[in-house]
């Protein structure tokens, strides 16, 4: 979630420390390239009411020019004392060096808490440490590698379905990608599909994310939890559906395990067998359920939005699309991704990384200081909200050349070394880095390469593209595109 802060005195707004400049190799020709759509940064800080409304409607539209120009912007507003940090060295300090001084904060727990309970994403302290130790092996390179086949299967089914559609048909690619990533989760988390119809499940997950991810003014103002929130009436039945669905899946698997029949080696079996290597303790029923929901919520739209933005950006940059089409044609002579060659899709991966730079699915990473700290030269008190916004960071004027333009070549192996680890944070960093980053990238490469090998997608006329931040950074109104076979 982004913040536009009250105007601080000029000294407060000025650069606190100049970060090491991490300039990717100069990129040329940006004048001729269309600028991907994004809200124009504000010239002035909005007043309290406008800020509350902005945070509810679309937090990424509340950033001011200063945020994209200053390494640190600190001030006070309705959220109390807050510092927006875009200095890679200071980010490293907050997320890694002094990570023990920060937790995720009350606002994040209130905004997301409803569905995710005590799952890994929101757990804190000892509970988080025990879960992270127990769950880390689920996403080990060996297990992630083992999921390649399911991912390729889902990608093949996606293009087979498209092959049955009329050439020139208009489809909502945001929906298509959401369906595909949910299927991947279905296969890798649960092996067999969910017990209910997949499309209904996809719709419920999407509606749930729409309502649960909206920042409620009452939460920002710190109002007690018993006060009814605007979206609560909509969220409750969705949550119930979720719980019933997940409980049914768990019961079925427990019965299977109890029968002694061989169980599929999916994330669910691993989750039920997971033990904290230090204490030997397994997860409680509630923790297993909370983590299944966490995987669905954290792993579904993040990946599908990345794919949606990548396909949109390619549709606006025919020369980039032609380059990546050459790669997939070369690497997929039979039309399928060879699981052994996923790492060879370097341009496909560069496109995905550049899409996540411009439209980071997790647009804000927020922390609350437990005790005082020094950020560069700024002293902050306990309870200060520290915001690392990948959306701001990835378009920061001090850190990137042509920050608002689409140039996948920045992420090609020969150039990538110039990018500071803490200037590009789609998956976060430090102990709470995304546990499934390699799973997500592998899945995205397989789905994007397969789509590009079989079809060409052009943005449909009449739809205006604008990123809107809910839990993830979505495209407002989906992403209608015209499908043509290659
Ligand atoms: C492109 C796709 C994805 C992106 C951009 C993404 C991004 C992130 C980010 C930024 C965080 C750190 C949040 C913070 O520090 O406050 C995170 C954490 C997490 N992600 Fe992902 N994620 C993606 C895919 C997935 C998938 C596929 C799964 C599960 C199957 C997943 C599960 C999680 C979990 C459980 C955490 C919490 C880790 C912890 O706190 O220990 N994510 N993700």
From TrEMBL:
UniProt keyword Lyase, yes or no: no
Keyword Transmembrane: no
Alphabetical list of Gene3D superfamilies matching this protein: Cytochrome P450 (1.10.630.10)
Listed Pfam families: p450
Residues reported in the UniProt entry to bind heme: 434
Alphabetical list of InterPro entries matching this protein: Cyt_P450 (IPR001128), Cyt_P450_CS (IPR017972), Cyt_P450_E_grp-I (IPR002401), Cyt_P450_sf (IPR036396), Cytochrome_P450_monoxygenase (IPR050121)
GO molecular function, one term: oxidoreductase activity, acting on paired donors, with incorporation or reduction of molecular oxygen
Residues covered by region (Disordered): 1-41
UniProt xrefs under SUPFAM superfamilies: Cytochrome P450
Record keywords: Heme, Iron, Metal-binding, Monooxygenase, Oxidoreductase
Superkingdom of the organism of origin: Bacteria
PROSITE patterns the record matches: CYTOCHROME_P450
Cofactor: heme
Family per similarity comment: Belongs to the cytochrome P450 family.
Database matches in PANTHER family: CYTOCHROME P450 (PTHR24305), CYTOCHROME P450 12A4, MITOCHONDRIAL-RELATED (PTHR24305:SF166)
Record-given protein name: Cytochrome P450
């Amino acid at each position: 979630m982004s913040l536009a802060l009250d105007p601080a005195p000029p000294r407060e707004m000025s650069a606190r420390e100049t970060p090491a400049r991490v300039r990717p190799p100069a990129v040329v020709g940006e004048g001729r390239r269309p600028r991907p759509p994004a809200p124009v940064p504000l010239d002035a800080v909005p007043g309290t009411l406008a800020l509350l409304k902005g945070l509810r409607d679309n937090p990424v539209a509340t950033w001011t020019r200063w945020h994209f120009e200053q390494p640190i912007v600190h001030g006070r507003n309705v959220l109390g004392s807050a510092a927006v940090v875009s200095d890679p060295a200071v980010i490293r300090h907050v997320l890694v060096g002094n990570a023990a001084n920060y937790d995720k904060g009350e606002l994040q727990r209130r905004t997301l808490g409803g569905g995710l309970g005590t799952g890994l994403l929101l757990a804190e302290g000892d509970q988080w440490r025990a879960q992270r130790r127990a769950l880390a092996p689920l996403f080990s390179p060996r297990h992630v590698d083992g999921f390649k086949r399911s991912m390729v299967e889902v990608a093949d089914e996606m293009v087979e379905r498209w092959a049955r559609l009329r050439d020139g048909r208009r489809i909502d690619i945001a929906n298509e990608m959401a369906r595909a990533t949910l299927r991947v989760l279905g296969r890798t988390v649960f092996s067999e599909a969910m017990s209910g119809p997949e499309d209904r499940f996809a719709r419920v997950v999407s509606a749930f994310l729409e309502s649960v991810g909206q920042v409620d003014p009452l939460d920002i103002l710190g109002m007690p939890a018993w006060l009814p929130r605007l979206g609560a009436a909509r969220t409750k039945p969705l949550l119930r559906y979720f719980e019933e669905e997940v409980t049914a899946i768990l019961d079925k698997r427990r019965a299977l395990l109890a029968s002694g029949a061989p169980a599929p080696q999916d994330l669910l079996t691993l989750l039920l067998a997971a033990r904290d290597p230090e204490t030997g303790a397994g997860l409680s029923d509630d923790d297993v359920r909370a983590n299944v929901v966490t995987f669905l919520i954290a792993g579904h739209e993040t990946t599908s939005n990345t794919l949606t933005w990548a396909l949109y950006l390619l549709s606006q940059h025919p020369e980039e699309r032609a380059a990546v089409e050459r790669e997939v044609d070369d690497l997929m002579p039979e039309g399928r991704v060879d699981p052994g060659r996923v790492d060879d899709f370097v341009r496909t991966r560069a496109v995905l990384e550049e899409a996540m730079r411009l439209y980071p699915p997790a647009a804000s990473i927020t922390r609350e200081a437990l005790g005082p700290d020094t950020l560069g030269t700024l002293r902050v008190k306990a309870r200060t909200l520290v915001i690392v916004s990948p959306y701001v960071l990835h378009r920061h004027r001090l850190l990137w050349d042509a920050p608002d333009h689409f140039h996948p070549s920045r992420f090609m192996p020969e150039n990538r070394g110039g990018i500071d680890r803490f200037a590009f944070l789609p998956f976060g960093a430090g102990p709470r880095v995304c546990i499934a980053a390699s799973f997500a990238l592998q899945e995205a490469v397989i789905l994007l390469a397969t789509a590009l090998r079989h079809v060409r997608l052009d943005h449909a006329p009449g739809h205006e593209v604008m990123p809107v931040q809910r839990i993830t950074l979505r495209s407002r109104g989906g992403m209608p595109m015209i499908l043509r076979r290659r």
